[in-house]
Specification:
CATH topology of the largest domain: Immunoglobulin-like
Strand order of the largest sheet: 10-9-12-17-14-15
CATH architecture of the largest domain: Sandwich
Oligomer: single chain
Largest sheet: 6 strands, mixed
Strand content: 35-45%
Number of helices: 5
Mean pLDDT: 94
Number of domains: 3
CATH class of the largest domain: Mainly Beta
CATH superfamily of the largest domain: Cupredoxins -  blue copper proteins
Low-confidence stretches: 1-24
Radius of gyration: 24 Å
Distance between the termini: 65 Å
């Protein structure tokens, strides 16, 4: 009996060990609760009631490993409707958890809750979560940190420490009031009052010397900085004075490492960099800085946020008046730097991290993106480009109108009538010199129009900036997919000559990429994720004006290629 008992206990031990191994292989389930609450915050000597998650600004990090299941209960304690988007998470067959209000879900109403439930498949690195309704993401945002699977390492030197740096914008006025007034008058919205590093404006702003971000480091160490641009309306340059940064990842995709002393990060993008500190204590303090890259004709917040990189001396207290080393950033509208910088991003494209860029294309699309106008209501004057027009924005001259119910819900239950149509134009309805003299008629059309894609369609999409109301850079974000940036250039896209220069070997894989001011970008992706997927400019003012559209990807034949049924607690409109 004793031997049998010993054998059974050994078997149980083996089974337990096997279960642990399988658990590690399959991933854990991680639970979070996000309470949306009012929260008083003082910046620039100005106290304002903001909306935040768990009364934190920026919000708490969501930390998981590749392969983990994540369950986030979002509870709305405020008067505003709210939804949360897990920016860059693929959401394979779990489109109900993607988050954009009126696209994949109705928003969560006051005193209601919703459980977001998704698995992180084949992704590791830095992403972000943020509110996805109106301009609430100004203060409702935070990092997503996806660690490699257990016992897997980074494809670069293990850092001494990892640090998250979130770039944002601070408004003394409620951003909801700002965009509401702009949409009513048809004019450009008031701009932010400061940029922030981890919620702090920094040295150059009024009342902000104490509200300055400090990064304390030791000499001779390597730090992994997880950089996130959570600003509402501004692409941002970033630098650390007198230090080289090695880019190793963008949008949670490893890159071929390259060195730079300054970066550009668009809203919605993330960039991981290695910072190698100086070998000896330098007896100086180095400024960290971020300021806007702006190419449009509208007003913008032309200020600079600054933090401090401070070396810890092993023996002495730091000097009270250390030498301040000043940063060096590109000019505000340095399109050439931006073009050169973005071209440096290349996928690793190796056996472990392949670049599975579609080599053949099933469907090609050509989208113009840019600004336009809408006529004023009768017997009123507006503050748009003329006193009879409002600012608008469009894709292929269609300014997207969000419906009053969620598109995904209407699609799933076969109730599309009156909610959306499937006739989004695959190319511009009127051809013109896109980057030349603008046409006389700048009015856009309005509609909730989508593109339908059969499952596993390989797509090539060229997005062309227009000079209507001025050429401008547009960071486009695609939900539900990563895409490969196979080409980009200035001027009008040439369908005969330009494809010959496409990079189909190691193009960068991203979820957000800038359409160059007065130029174009070509992307490819495989439509292997059933559901309704939003694509929009990540400058929120342009999204509000209509620079957005949606792809509707049909189910595939296999069970794991079908959109899962909606959860029982899906919010109602």
């Amino acid at each position: 009996m004793a031997e049998t008992s010993h054998l059974s206990s050994m078997a149980m031990l083996f089974i337990s060990f096997f279960v642990v191994l399988m658990g590690n292989a399959e991933g854990e389930t991680r639970h979070y609760t996000f309470n949306i609450r009012y929260h008083n915050v003082t910046r620039l000597c100005h106290t304002r009631t903001i909306l935040s998650v768990n009364r934190r600004y920026p919000g708490p990090p969501l930390v998981a490993r590749e392969g983990d299941r994540v369950i986030v209960k979002v509870v709305n304690h405020v008067a505003n409707n709210v939804s949360i988007h897990w920016h860059g998470i693929r959401q394979l067959t779990t489109g109900w958890s993607d988050g954009p209000s009126y696209v994949t879900q109705c928003p969560i109403q006051t005193n209601q809750s919703y459980i977001y439930n998704f698995t992180i498949t084949g992704q590791r690195g830095t992403l972000l979560w943020h509110a996805h309704i109106s301009w609430l993401r100004a203060t409702i945002h935070g990092p997503i940190i996806i660690l490699p699977k257990l016992n897997q390492s980074y494809p670069f030197q293990k850092p001494h420490k990892e640090v998250t740096i979130i770039l944002g914008e601070w408004f003394n006025e409620d951003p909801e009031a700002i965009i509401s007034q702009a949409l009513r008058t048809g004019g450009g919205p008031n701009v932010s009052d400061a940029y922030t590093i981890n919620g702090l404006p920094g040295l150059l702003y009024n009342c902000s010397s104490k509200d300055t971000y400090k990064l304390k480091v030791k000499p001779g160490k390597t730090y992994l900085l997880r950089l996130i641009n959570a600003a509402l309306n501004d692409e941002l340059f970033f630098t650390i004075a007198n230090h080289t940064l090695t880019v190793v990842e963008g949008d949670a995709i490893y890159t071929k490492p390259f060195d730079t002393d300054k970066l550009l990060i668009t809203p919605g993008q993330t960039t991981n960099v290695l910072l190698k500190t100086k070998p000896e204590y330098p007896n100086a303090t180095f400024l960290i800085a971020a300021r806007p890259y702006s190419t449009g004709q509208g007003t913008f917040d032309n200020s600079t946020t600054m933090g401090v990189l401070e070396y810890e001396h092993p023996f002495k207290k730091p000097s009270k008046n250390p030498t301040l080393i000043q940063p060096n950033l590109p000019q505000i509208n340095d399109t050439q730097f931006v073009s050169n910088f973005t071209m440096k991003f290349r996928s690793l494209a190796n056996d472990e991290f392949p670049a599975n860029v579609p080599k053949t294309v099933d469907k090609r699309f050509f989208f113009t993106v840019g600004l336009g106008t809408s006529p004023c209501p009768k017997n009123t004057t507006c503050q748009g480009p003329t006193n009879s027009t409002k600012f608008a924005a469009s894709v292929n001259n269609v300014s997207f109108t969000l419906p009053s119910v969620a598109i995904l819900q209407a699609y799933y239950f076969g109730q599309s009538n009156g909610v959306y149509t499937t006739d989004f134009p695959v190319e511009p309805m009127v051809r013109f010199n896109y980057t030349g003299i603008a046409p006389n008629n700048t009015n856009v059309m309005n509609g909730t129009r989508t593109v339908v894609l059969p499952f596993n369609t390989s797509v090539e999409l060229v997005m062309q900036d227009t000079s209507i109301l001025g050429a401008e850079s547009h960071p486009l974000h695609l939900h539900g997919f990563n895409f490969f940036v196979v080409g980009q250039g200035f001027g009008n896209f040439d369908p005969v000559k330009d494809p010959a220069k496409f990079n189909l070997v190691d193009p960068m894989e991203r979820n957000t990429a800038g359409v160059p001011a007065g130029g174009w970008i070509a992307i490819r992706f495989l439509a292997d994720n059933p559901g309704v997927w939003f694509m929009h400019c990540h400058l929120d003012v342009h999204t509000s004006w209509g620079l957005k559209m949606a792809w509707l990807v049909l189910d595939g034949p296999e069970p794991n290629q079908k959109l899962q049924p909606p959860p029982s607690d899906l919010p109602q409109c």
